[in-house]
Structure to design on (926 residues):
């Protein structure tokens, strides 16, 4: 087991990502930030707060649960549905920034795109993740990445956030071969 | 969990899980999303051997909102009414590839027979079997109560609920007594002695013949439909006497606690067990129960069908 | 009539002392500790109990009219398998056995099958309708020599009809066997009325519907000084009333079925109609009272109420299903399990309750006799050391509706002799050679 990101690393990454998002989108007026529960939602709240303090105004943000759109539901017991909360300004014609903690196979993001499609038609959908661990199974890529972590499929990446786990860190468990 | 035949099939956490799922689905349905892909490709059969419009439509709406295909099989004009046995009907539906059967039947235990005899391999959901149980109704009733009055972990702990009417013949009463008491509520059954079953003392509920003494002390009153046929079977002398003692009229409604709500599973006999102005009053959540019914039934279908075959038994 | 000779060695007659029995020409020729006979077929009964041939006072043979579920022939085979040498055929056939013609037909069918004596029971009322008396005299004087009259399936509910019937049968040395069920209290009833029925949403059959009729009928029997028999008693309250009546010297006898000695109403929770029966399975309290009553003689006999039903009438939802259980092939084992193994009865007591007394009630003079030299050779052999597992697919009855499928039961019935002829050897029934 090794610590890939410390609390300070995470904080710096989130700050950088927040700046990158604002830079690429020329400000925040057309942005809606949506975090994918569970940990993506908390990261989205943090990123929205950071962007808000940079811009000096409120950032439209919320959560998007993708459980009902998963393509692997039948493989395990039914999962609890997490809250979906779209901010009042919505997503129609706006730039949606999806936030998740780990990008792996890409299926979660595929489900998120389906979920968004039911809600409305954004102008663009961009993806920010704290960790990209590779091994994509679908043609999905992140626009903003906290850290690229090459891993083998035998390993697992564990993200802990203060809001839920009491500490901020990213840990890789298991050995590469 | 493969079948939902009785409230006894659920643990408290199963039941709360269904209510929580329904809460989330309600929020989604209130928003812009009207259709979810979750059960796409699944076939759900409504096997309604007993007439019912509202429950069947409720399950149909729930299934369609999850993108499942729905086949309706109702008693009238079907081979069931011509004497085809339940077994043959079930095997025919199985041959058509049903993933789940929602069954309503006039015989108590019909849903369990369908599940136990394995005439079909899919999930069996009891939508009302004779006078035995109606689990989805109890779940939507608990959901409604929790939404208006909810407190505590399950949302129902310590709440006092009165169920009034023909308890003897009511599957809604049986399922509600089991579920509400499981979730920590106190249930009082109010009825004339003739409409309480022998053995009711063993149920997790208290009994009262005196509606007026119960009214001020409860948080919700659930009125049950009383059928006219019960008069000719000597259960009570006439509807006038029944309404006088057990009908929820405006006068009784004004004696209710300020926050208390009025419920009814429908269809109502306006003027018999419930006065028209009570049914239409601000305390009445009867229409909302119908909406909640769709969300709760979506949650039931999700919990039973969305997962894979690997997990048999409770979550 | 039989030319066969059998030497049964080392069986315990009435479960008491080991003895040899020599059977010849339909009679018991000799009983003594050690017999040798070169011409007889020797059968080793070491470890087994020898009883007089079992007599069932209550069975439904379904012929004429419902031969899809059972015939006199198939029931005879099932009876031989269970150790029975006499069966009483209830009258609720189609047509009803309310004339000399029908009872003689049933009697002859029994003779043709030749495995047991079939004694037809005559209906009390025409068509079992409970209104007009049937031709009781004609049936009594017929070849079938009917002495037991019953509307079983239905209750003789009208007190005036019951009174007249009890009076009328005195001329013919008859007995009225009443199915005690007050119809107004049991409309649409599905199972015992109690805690279980309230939970399952099945309409209850209250105990008082049986007790009220028993109370009325013992008083009537006393008033007119006639013989009354109560079929399938199932309630502790019914037992108390019968005990009271007997203490007063009223001529009442009573029977209990094997299934009511063991099974209780909680079995209905599966909604499997194999447990649906009339009168219904009741509570643990009732089962205890019935066992005690059978032990102390308040209940005189065991009768199976063997009620075959085709699978489509049991393979359905409870409310649609027929009432009834088959019981001929499991009866003696159930009595062994519930009464003998519990120390409530010894084998002599079983012989009394399953052979001697039933024959006495029905006036079957050739049956239920003591196992002594000169008696007719109707003999049942059970091996109490062997247990067996009930398999509904292997029953000899035409119908499979046994509630005991999968149960392991003590005591295997191995041999049955009817009129000196072996109808079953080593648990295999031997059909009559034509």
């Amino acid at each position: 087991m090794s610590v890939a990101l410390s609390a300070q690393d995470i904080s710096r990454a989130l700050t950088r990502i927040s700046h990158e998002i604002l830079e690429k989108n020329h400000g925040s007026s057309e942005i809606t930030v949506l975090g994918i529960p569970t940990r993506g939602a908390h990261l989205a709240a943090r990123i929205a707060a950071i962007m808000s303090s940079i811009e000096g105004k409120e950032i439209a943000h919320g959560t998007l649960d993708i459980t009902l759109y998963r393509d692997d539901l039948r493989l395990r017991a039914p999962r609890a549905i997490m809250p979906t909360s779209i901010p009042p300004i919505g997503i129609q014609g706006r730039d949606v920034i999806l936030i998740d903690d780990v990008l792996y196979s890409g299926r979660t993001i595929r489900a998120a795109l389906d979920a968004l499609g039911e809600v409305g038609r954004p102008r663009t959908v961009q993806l920010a993740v704290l960790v990209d661990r590779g091994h994509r199974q679908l043609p999905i890529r992140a626009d903003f990445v906290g850290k690229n972590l090459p891993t083998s499929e035998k390993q697992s990446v564990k993200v802990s956030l203060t809001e839920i786990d009491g500490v901020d860190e990213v840990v890789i468990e298991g050995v590469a071969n | 969990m493969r079948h939902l035949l009785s409230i006894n099939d659920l643990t408290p956490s199963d039941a709360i899980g269904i209510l929580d799922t329904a809460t989330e689905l309600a929020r989604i349905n209130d928003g812009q999303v009207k259709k979810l892909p979750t059960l796409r490709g699944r076939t759900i059969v409504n096997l309604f051997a007993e007439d019912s419009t509202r429950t069947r439509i409720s399950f149909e709406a729930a299934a369609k909102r999850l993108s499942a295909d729905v086949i309706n099989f109702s008693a009238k004009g079907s081979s069931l009414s011509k004497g085809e046995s339940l077994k043959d009907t079930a095997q025919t539906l199985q041959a058509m590839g049903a993933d789940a059967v929602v069954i309503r039947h006039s015989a108590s235990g019909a849903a369990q027979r369908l599940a136990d005899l394995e005439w079909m391999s899919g999930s069996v959901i009891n939508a009302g079997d004779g006078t035995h149980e109606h689990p989805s109704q109890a779940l939507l009733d608990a959901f409604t109560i929790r939404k208006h009055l909810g407190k505590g972990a399950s949302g129902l702990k310590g709440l006092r609920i009165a169920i009034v009417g023909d308890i003897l013949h009511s599957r809604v009463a049986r399922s509600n007594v089991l579920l509400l008491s499981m979730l920590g509520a106190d249930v009082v059954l109010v009825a004339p002695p003739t409409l309480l079953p022998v053995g009711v003392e063993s149920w997790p509920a208290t009994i009262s013949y005196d509606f007026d003494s119960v009214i001020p002390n409860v948080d919700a009153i659930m009125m049950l439909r009383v059928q006219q046929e019960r008069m000719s079977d000597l259960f009570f002398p006439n509807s006038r006497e029944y309404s006088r003692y057990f009908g929820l009229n405006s006068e009784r409604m004004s004696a209710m606690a300020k926050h208390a709500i009025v419920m009814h599973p429908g269809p109502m006999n306006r003027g018999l067990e419930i006065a028209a102005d009570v049914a239409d009053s601000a305390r009445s959540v009867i229409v909302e129960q119908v909406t909640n019914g769709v969300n709760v039934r979506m949650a039931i279908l999700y919990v039973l069908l969305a997962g894979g075959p690997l997990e048999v038994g409770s979550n | 009539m039989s030319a066969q000779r059998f030497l049964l060695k080392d069986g315990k007659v009435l479960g008491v002392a080991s003895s040899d029995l020599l059977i010849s020409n339909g009679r018991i020729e000799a009983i003594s500790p050690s017999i040798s006979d070169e011409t007889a077929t020797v059968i080793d009964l070491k470890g087994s109990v020898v009883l007089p041939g079992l007599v069932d006072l209550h069975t439904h043979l379904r012929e004429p009219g419902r031969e899809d579920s059972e015939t006199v022939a198939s029931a005879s085979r099932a009876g031989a398998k269970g150790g029975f040498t006499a069966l009483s055929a209830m009258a609720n056939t189609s047509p009803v056995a309310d004339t000399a013609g029908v009872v003689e037909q049933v009697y002859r069918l029994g003779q043709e099958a030749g495995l047991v004596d079939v004694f037809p029971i005559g209906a009390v009322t025409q068509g079992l309708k409970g209104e007009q008396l049937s031709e009781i005299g004609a049936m009594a004087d017929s070849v079938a020599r009917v002495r037991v009259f019953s509307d079983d399936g239905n209750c003789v509910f009208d007190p005036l009809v019951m009174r007249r019937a009890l009076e009328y049968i005195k001329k013919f040395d008859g007995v009225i066997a009443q199915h005690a069920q007050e119809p107004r209290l049991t409309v649409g009833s599905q199972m015992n009325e109690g805690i279980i029925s309230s939970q399952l949403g099945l309409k209850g059959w209250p105990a008082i519907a049986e007790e009220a009729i028993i109370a009325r009928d013992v008083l009537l029997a006393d008033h007119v000084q006639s013989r009354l028999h109560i079929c399938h008693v199932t309630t502790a309250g019914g037992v108390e009333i019968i005990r009271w009546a007997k203490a007063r010297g009223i001529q009442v006898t009573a029977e209990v079925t094997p299934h009511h000695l063991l099974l209780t109403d909680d079995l209905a929770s599966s909604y499997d109609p194999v447990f649906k029966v009339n009168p219904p399975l009741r509570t643990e309290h009732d089962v205890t009272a019935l066992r005690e009553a059978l032990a102390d003689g308040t209940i005189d006999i065991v009768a199976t109420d063997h009620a075959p039903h085709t699978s489509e009438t049991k393979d359905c939802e409870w409310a649609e299903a027929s009432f009834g259980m088959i019981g001929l092939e499991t009866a003696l084992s159930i009595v062994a399990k519930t009464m003998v193994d519990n120390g409530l009865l010894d084998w002599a007591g079983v012989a009394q309750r399953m052979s001697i007394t039933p024959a006495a009630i029905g006036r079957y003079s050739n049956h239920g006799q003591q196992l002594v030299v000169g008696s007719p050779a109707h003999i049942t052999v059970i091996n109490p050391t062997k247990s067996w597992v009930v398999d509904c697919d292997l029953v000899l009855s035409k119908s499979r509706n046994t509630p005991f499928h999968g149960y392991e039961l003590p005591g295997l019935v191995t041999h049955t002799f009817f009129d000196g002829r072996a109808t079953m050897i080593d648990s295999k029934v031997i059909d009559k050679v034509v």
User: Anything to note?
Assistant: The mean pLDDT of chain C is 96. Chain C touches chain B through 22 residues (CB under 8 Å). The radius of gyration of chain C is 21 Å. DSSP finds ten helices and 19 strands in chain C.
